[in-house]
Design a protein that fits this description.
45% helix; two-stranded antiparallel ribbon; three-stranded antiparallel sheet; 7 helices; 158 residues; alpha+beta; globular
Length: 158
């Protein structure tokens, strides 16, 4: 599991952090999301430091995504649809992604731009993953994940 300590190995980590602080300090509406936004972009530094590959958010359930599926999908940059919760970047393109983030605006009209917009990549539907989201006021995300997992286990395989 990659974390901030892995991201800090990347030579681009400090520049990415400076970029985020610089852009977000002017947007009051985003200040309460600072940690989330930093994690969203810093994870690319961790992937860069580790040489590229697949990465997913912690709230993604694997409900049939196989190594064979991953191999078939691998391109220089792959983003799952609806805010990338699962993505792939080749070792050669990891630095390219970070450079794109560093060279352009990450904020537009008081909102964070999507990764796909910044990178010019069309997100794709990836079968075999379930991105679990809890709505405000509902049970905890872990409870929602357990419910999703139980539902997927109870359904017969195709």
């Amino acid at each position: 599991m990659l974390n901030r300590s892995h991201a800090q190995v990347s030579q681009r980590y400090n520049k990415m952090l400076q970029k985020l602080v610089g852009e977000l300090r002017h947007v009051e509406a985003l200040r309460n999301q600072f940690d989330f936004i930093v994690a969203r972009f810093i994870r690319w530094c961790a992937l860069h430091a580790s040489g590229g590959g697949w990465m997913s958010d912690y709230d993604v359930l694997n409900v049939g995504f196989t190594p064979e599926s991953a191999i078939k999908l691998q391109q220089p940059i792959v983003l799952s649809s609806s805010r990338p919760c699962l993505f792939y970047v080749s070792a050669e393109n990891a630095q390219y992604v970070i450079n794109k983030y560093l060279s352009g605006d990450l904020v537009e009209c008081s909102k964070i731009r999507s990764e796909s917009d910044i990178l010019g990549v069309k997100p794709i539907e990836i079968d075999g993953i379930d991105h679990v989201r809890a709505r405000p006021g509902e049970t905890s995300k872990s409870s929602v994940m357990q419910e999703h997992w139980a539902l997927n286990l109870s359904q017969p395989a195709d």
